[in-house]
């Protein structure tokens, strides 16, 4: 065996998964096809669940620094710091659950942060290493890896495809990937448009945005050729389709093109091969949920996979069971957003109605919870009496100490007035009298921050046995 686990892809999800594995005592190999880190802008922030997860690993101060800067940029570009649903910028992030905070951090900055963390944990990322073959066998996975040094086979106990929306691991691993085809293509390019254009906004055949050295289209009459690059001609043709106007694009400096195709792997595990992040689910970036979703896949999988490497794989199937419904819910709401972005007077009218509804506090709270996922609850495999069991734990102040200072080791944590009598060597047992939240007198936390049991009435010994 060359490695216990090979993580394929050093995007944010692969990097976080590798860090969680290392924290749990497994030394993974991370293989990345690119020769160096990507600087594509993509996501500009993470929701409260992922931000809380990173804070619990000591990354809070880094997130805070980036967040202040991100807020200024957001306000400048959108005139508001409110989140959006189908680009209707009215969602109050605090409405979901006051005190739950996301973090505005650009994807390249987040990846750099995670690479630094991996460095500290002693895990190397091998850039310039592309996985091109995979054999999923009963006792191991054999990968073919191409690099400047040539082609070689790498044998591993488990392989995890964190290799993005066009995942090679997903295809080679023969995962079904059902879903819906694109209804639109979004193009975002840097450059200056010159021509008699209509004002930016919704138009009869799509949406046009431009100014400040950028141009973007939401094009509903297009199925583009993925093998052809986004160039000035492709951008011009799309502007023509959306506006009917011929333009010139000067100083074209590249950009991004993506669709609202929504697909999800039918299972996230086939034997010893697993998927996480965009490799497991693709959808439109509307509402900015993909990164959050993928990072929480990594948090969910890390400690379970580490247990499997140590010889007990009984938790591994709970990864699909817990994460697949969460991904399906995100696909569903991004499809709803695509419907609200389609052109035409009927949708214009629907958007007006929807916008008015968003002014109602109940609706605003509903959407804020939908986008942030803070009310996601996992079914636990034992009886619990507490209404918060199965939820992600909110940030607590435990007898005056922030929870995030007690969770950096990534170990299961028991906070209870009689923790020493209940806990054993499988958990960090901390005697705690005041958790700073009236709803919680005691809590058993999984490494991914999920409340495995809570309150003084829950049978926490059974919960410890079930998970750890
Ligand atoms: C324009 C845009 C805006 C977005 N905005 C947001 C937002 O605001 N909020 C949000 O949450 N999400 C947003 N997203 C989505 C977010 O960017 C993705 O969900 C995120 O990048 C997924 O991370 P990942 O690690 O799963 O995959 P990726 O970031 O795609 O990383 C996959 C990595 O695997 C590597 N790889 C691929 N194939 C191989 C191979 N065969 N061998 C080795 N390595 C391989 C790739 O080079 C890449 O580095 C946005 C996306 C786009 C396009």
From TrEMBL:
Q: Which GO terms describe its molecular function?
A: monooxygenase activity
Keywords for this protein: FAD, Flavoprotein, Monooxygenase, Oxidoreductase
Tell whether Cell inner membrane is among the UniProt keywords.
no
Query: Which cofactor does this sequence's record say it needs?
Result: FAD
What single Pfam family name could you report for this chain, choosing any that match?
FAD_binding_3
Task: State the Gene3D superfamilies in the record.
Answer: 3.40.30.120, FAD/NAD(P)-binding domain
InterPro entries listed in its UniProt record:
FAD-bd (IPR002938), FAD/NAD-bd_sf (IPR036188), RIFMO-like (IPR050641)
State the source organism's domain of life. Answer: Bacteria
Q: Does the keyword Hydrolase apply?
A: no
- Location of the FAD-binding domain: 2-334
Q: Under what name is this protein listed?
A: FAD-dependent monooxygenase
Record lineage: Bacteria, Bacillati, Actinomycetota, Actinomycetes, Micromonosporales
